[in-house]
Specification:
The termini are far apart. The strands form three sheets. This protein has a seven-stranded mixed β-sheet with strand order 1-2-9-6-5-3-4, with helices on both faces. Strands 10-11-12 form a three-stranded antiparallel β-sheet. The protein is built from 13 helices and twelve strands.
């Protein structure tokens, strides 16, 4: 078991290892000593796989727990589902001293975290990520949100969990495509901060040690979140590949998964960076090679004119400018503000090999 402390305004630990869900009851009893009721939020795929272990752990700790199950997928991450969950909490008389648990991937984690942030002006919640993507990225850092028709994560709040319990055994149940989605965020993190990890991924592909790699990624995110908790500066680097990636998701009506969209976005922005002279000309081919090792796409035929409205609706926009994360080399990227014309020219160049 690896434990990583996250020193934010509300500090907490991320615990990574096999059978972590069996520890949930004891951890939550210690962290939320006044809690009488726990609402476990999950989806219709994850809960049948992992719900029994979690609920047994809660019962053993003397916690009265019940479950609220969502339809799986990005389509559930909206304001209507949020209101449904909030109404459920009131109907079940969940109080400010009680807690929520997010058992699932990024959709469940983001939605549950936002519900915890706004219900009775804020109650405790615990992240139990069951996908690689949520383990290395969305479960850590306190960003919570739901989608609006104009784009992803446009309604949300910063609300840190009381703890994150990452059970690596849960990853064994993932379909290959869902595991690959998480690998896109792993590669992104290595490209941003960790040349040795990037080299390891390029050599080992999917055969990496999961506990070790998740801990490395969480440690990097911990460092940047501790420096910029509310995303006003350097934390923006974590959006590498996301400006184009979120637009690809939205323009595909979310038929394209987040991980695959981020992989395309990362490869495209590397190509654009090389063409603009911001990075070495060999970097795009190496990024594409590593992403391909994980079965991830690196190109799209979606035209720039269709993507632009979604990119200009991105939450990273500040006034007339969009902050684009531009790779310079493995381990170093920069934030470059671009207006609409610059963004279109830059991203269009990256869409072409």
């Amino acid at each position: 078991m690896k434990i990583i402390h996250v020193p934010t305004s509300t500090p907490y630990d991320v615990e990574i290892g096999a059978d972590a869900l069996s520890l949930a009851g004891k951890r939550i009893r210690r962290l939320c000593p006044k809690a009488e009721r726990i609402a476990v939020v999950s989806d219709d795929i994850v809960f049948p796989l992992h719900g029994e272990k979690l609920m047994a752990s809660l019962a053993a700790a003397g916690l009265d727990a019940e479950s609220y199950i969502l339809p799986h997928g990005e389509a559930s991450k909206n304001a209507q589902t949020l209101i449904g969950l909030l109404n459920y909490l009131t109907e079940r008389h969940i109080t400010r001293s009680d807690a929520l648990i997010a058992l699932g991937g990024g959709v469940v984690g983001d939605l549950t975290g936002f519900a915890a942030a706004v219900y009775m002006r804020g109650i405790a919640y615990i992240q139990c990520p069951t996908t690689l993507l949520s383990a290395v990225d969305s479960s850590v850092g306190g960003k919570t949100a739901v989608d609006l028709p104009a784009g992803k994560n446009l309604m949300g709040a910063f609300w840190q969990p009381r703890c994150v319990l990452c059970d690596t055994d849960a990853l064994e149940t993932l379909p290959g495509s869902i595991l690959e989605d998480g690998c896109a965020e792993v590669v992104k993190t290595a490209l941003l901060f960790d040349p040795p990890l990037f080299g390891l991924l390029g050599r080992e592909g999917k055969n990496f040690d999961r506990e070790h790699v998740i801990a490395r990624c969480v440690s990097h995110k911990r460092d940047i979140v501790a420096e910029d908790e509310y995303d006003t500066g350097r934390r923006g680097l974590l959006n590498l590949g996301h400006t184009l990636g979120h637009a690809l998701e939205a323009c595909s009506d979310f038929a394209l998964s987040h991980g695959r969209a981020v992989a395309i976005g990362t490869a495209a922005v590397c190509r654009a960076s090389a063409k603009a002279g911001f990075c070495d000309p060999w970097l795009p081919a190496e990024i594409s090679r590593v992403l391909s090792l994980f079965g991830l796409p690196t190109e799209t035929d979606m035209p720039i004119d269709r993507l632009m409205p979604a990119m200009l609706s991105d939450k990273k926009r500040a006034g007339s400018l969009v902050n684009v994360v531009v790779p310079e080399r493995v381990g170093k990227s920069s934030l470059r503000p671009m207006d609409a014309a610059q963004l279109k020219e830059f991203m269009e160049s990256g869409l072409k090999s």
